[in-house]
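Why should sequence recovery work at all? Because a backbone constrains its sequence more than one might expect. Tight turns favour small or flexible residues, buried strands favour hydrophobic ones, and helices have their own preferences. The token representation captures these environments compactly. In the example below, the structure is given first.
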């Protein structure tokens, strides 16, 4: 049985300590997709039809949260929560970050200014909890021929935070797990 998260960053289930991770980032970056990629059972999701900005591959948006239980190859259990990307649901962010071990900020390489997005989301998360470990994952690089990760790394350096950044495809289980492992390395 999966127990809901309590206060600390890691919780005891019957078998092992479980880390709570949260996925943050703008609308359409791939938070819901990432959770669907890594969970074996169907995750909990709160998708509603997009009134504006629907596209062929995205016609719904998260209005409260995503939740899934995943197990890394080494047996490490994870409770993974996804935030809604839209600003009007920003009130959910502190609620979901309560008791989290760390945050994966997912950005979209197709978005106009990815480094500005990066700075924005780093500010949003650290304003809620300045001590949370963070990893950045950038999706949709297959759709942006001109994308370079260097401006994003420069934005991270400007923030003064030791945050690793990777590109990945949220539809791919192994690539999504790779990000989670990078975050969990801070745990050891
Ligand atoms: N081409 C491409 N598509 C991707 C990649 N990663 C995710 N996607 C797609 O991008 C879309 C992301 O949608 P969601 O997962 O709903 O995005 P979200 O971040 O949960 O968005 P909100 O809930 O609205 O904040 C889906 O259609 C995915 O299939 C990638 O690397 N490349
Ligand atoms: Mg979503």
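From this structural description, the recovered sequence reads:
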């Amino acid at each position: 049985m999966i127990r809901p998260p309590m206060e600390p960053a890691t919780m005891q289930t019957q078998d092992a300590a479980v880390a709570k991770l949260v996925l943050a980032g703008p609308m359409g970056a791939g938070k819901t997709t990432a959770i669907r990629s890594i969970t074996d059972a169907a995750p909990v999701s709160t998708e509603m039809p997009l009134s504006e900005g629907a596209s062929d591959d995205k016609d719904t948006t998260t209005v409260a949260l995503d939740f899934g239980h995943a197990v890394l190859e080494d047996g490490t259990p994870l409770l993974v929560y996804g935030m809604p990307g839209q600003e009007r649901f920003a009130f959910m962010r502190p609620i979901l970050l309560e008791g989290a071990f760390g945050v994966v900020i997912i950005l979209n390489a197709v978005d106009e200014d990815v480094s500005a997005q990066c700075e924005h989301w780093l500010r949003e998360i650290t304003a809620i909890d300045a001590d949370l470990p963070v990893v950045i994952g950038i999706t949709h690089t297959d759709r942006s021929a001109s994308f370079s990760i260097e401006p994003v790394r420069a934005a991270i350096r400007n923030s003064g935070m030791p945050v690793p950044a990777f590109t990945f495809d949220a539809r791919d289980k192994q690539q999504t797990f790779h990000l989670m492992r990078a975050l969990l390395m801070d745990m050891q």
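A few observations help interpret the result. Confidence is low (pLDDT under 50) at residues 5-9.
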